[in-house]
Design a protein that fits this description.
heterotrimer; A mainly alpha (about 220); B mainly alpha (about 250); C mainly alpha (about 55); C: about 55 residues; mainly alpha; about 95% helix
């Protein structure tokens, strides 16, 4: 098997584990929708949210949901030392990271589709005007976010505070990403607002860093 | 306590008093802020020391990941810990300075916001480091995190600055023209804080080294005792089914 | 009045700076004491091991 095949095997393994009752998507979705509901109540059921608030709240919900979900992503693998299997394969270890990232992204994406639909319905936000931009921003944002989350979850994997620590580490690290995604989503909701190319660059930079860093570091993190 | 330590503490004490003198008496009040400008000497120095110590932490973390000497990790983590202390001081003094001149304890000024995020980054570092078992694993993981965190700081500053550019600038600090005596007081305060930092770093690193040695010794004693106990107990390797449920963390 | 208030903030800043440094040092000394106690325990454990061999 070459590395591409190994990659898809690993991704498929994660997805299949999820389909057999991993409950990643279900817990993500129910937590996220619950947060949308809470936000709606906190805003006293405001009938019209400004576009800037709506985009900020949307990403807040997505960030919390992803950060919490990341902590339990590989919980299934802990049983009977299943995590050892991929490590024993004669491949570059960073490949395991990329597979895990891809699977996590896919599941987060599935959950966020439902989440975003309910967000627009419950909070009565008008449908995004620039729909293509909106889809691209959500896809790129969840990709970068799940990548950073997977990396930090690995870093905090041996910590006894793991469940709390992943959100605590993820939020400050990805503040620029958060700001950029809010601005770009605002632009998608209301194209009159100019977002600025710098925000696209920030999202791109996160994608590049999350893509390259594990290739350099993953072996190091896992060796001990 | 050797003579060297006493001399070090003495020098730092004298520097501290001189710093206090230059900040309160030796420098003139500023024309728009009056005596409040004297806060600058403490606030700016602690901010610089905080940034410096995080830089030192990342540098030694990188050295550790390359050379794998325990002392490098000890310096790195000690420096980060002192950095958190100075960041806390920077935030509190900044707040105390903002209240009388901006009439608010907090503003979304890019520098302020960046410093607060920096504080969270390194509180996360301390939590991460404090909750991982095993000396080497802890050193590698926290080292990697320290490097990522420092690399993230310019991005955060840039993004926050960009984000907040729609708000009016409350104050342009570059507009303060500093006469020589104020500049001298500022530089002196920085030197004094730097001396304190070096002393604290030396003490803290030594302590960390001792703690790690103690930890290793304990592990060794545990092993010796375990071996002694094995002699009394029947050999576990004769019963493979007993070894199935060894938990993951115990390798 | 204004000068007095300014001096109040100034002294608060000074207090924060030096008290924080002091608190850090006190914490260092405390953990040094704890380290010392652990070292003594370790010595006892060592003697214990030696006796049992």
């Amino acid at each position: 098997m070459n590395s591409v095949q190994v990659f898809w095997t690993l991704v498929w393994k994660d997805l299949r584990a999820e389909m057999r009752g991993g409950r990643f998507v279900v817990s993500c979705l129910s937590f996220g929708v619950l947060m949308v509901l809470i936000v709606g109540m906190a805003l006293n059921a405001a009938p019209h949210l400004p576009a800037s608030w709506a985009s900020g709240l949307l990403w807040m919900v997505l960030f919390f949901t992803t950060a919490l979900a990341m902590t339990r992503h590989d919980a299934k693998e802990q049983e009977f030392g299943g995590w050892m299997g991929p490590w024993l394969a004669p491949i570059d270890r960073s490949l395991v990271f990329y597979a895990r990232w891809c699977a996590a992204w896919f599941m987060v994406l599935v959950a966020s589709v439902g989440l975003i639909a309910l967000f627009f319905i419950i909070l009565n936000v008008p449908f995004p005007v620039a729909f293509g931009t909106f889809v691209a921003v959500v896809a790129a944002g969840t990709l970068a976010l799940s990548g950073a989350g997977t990396l930090l979850a690995t870093l905090a994997g041996q910590s006894s505070l793991r469940e709390v620590l992943v959100p605590i580490l993820l939020f400050p690290i990805s503040i620029p990403l958060f700001l950029a995604l809010i601005r770009l989503t605002w632009h998608a909701l209301d194209p009159a607002v100019i977002a600025g190319a710098a925000w696209v660059e920030i999202v791109g930079a996160y994608l590049v860093v999350v893509g390259v860093l594990p290739w350099l570091l993953y072996e190091l993190i896992l060796e001990v | 306590m050797t003579k060297r330590w006493i001399a070090g503490i003495g020098v730092v004490g004298i520097l501290g008093w001189l710093c206090q003198y230059f900040a309160f008496i030796g420098s003139p009040p500023e024309k728009s802020m009056g005596n409040l400008i004297r806060i600058l000497y403490f606030h700016a120095s602690s901010a610089w020391i905080a940034f410096l110590s995080f830089g030192v932490a990342a540098f030694f973390a990188l050295c550790y990941l390359i050379r794998r000497r325990p002392i490098l990790d000890q310096i790195s983590s000690s420096s980060a810990e002192i950095g958190v202390m100075y960041t806390t001081v920077t935030l509190i003094t900044g707040s105390l300075w903002a209240k009388p001149i901006w009439n608010a304890w907090w503003t979304w000024d890019p520098r302020l916001t960046t410093t607060l995020i920096l504080w969270f980054l390194y509180v996360g570092y301390l939590l991460l480091r404090g909750s991982i078992e095993g000396l080497e694993r802890r050193a590698v993981v926290s080292g990697v995190y320290a490097i990522i965190a420092v690399a993230d700081v310019p991005v955060i500053h840039f993004a926050v600055e960009w984000w907040n550019s729609i708000h009016p600038q409350v104050i342009d600090e570059t507009g303060i023209n500093m006469p020589g005596s104020m500049l001298f007081a500022l530089m002196f305060a920085f030197v004094a804080f730097f001396a304190i930092y070096v002393l604290l770093l030396a003490v803290r690193t030594r302590q960390e080294a001792q703690r790690q040695r103690l930890y290793r010794l304990r592990r060794e004693i545990q092993e010796v005792r375990g071996r002694a106990a094995d002699k009394l107990q029947p050999d576990i390797s004769a019963h493979p089914q007993l070894q199935m449920s060894v938990p993951k963390g115990s390798k | 009045m204004r000068v007095l208030q300014q001096m109040g903030f100034l002294w608060a800043v000074t207090a924060v700076v030096w008290l924080a440094t002091l608190a850090f040092i006190v914490r260092l000394v405390q953990s040094q004491h704890r380290l010392h106690r652990e070292l003594e325990q370790l010595e006892r454990a060592l003697q214990d091991v030696r006796r049992s061999e």
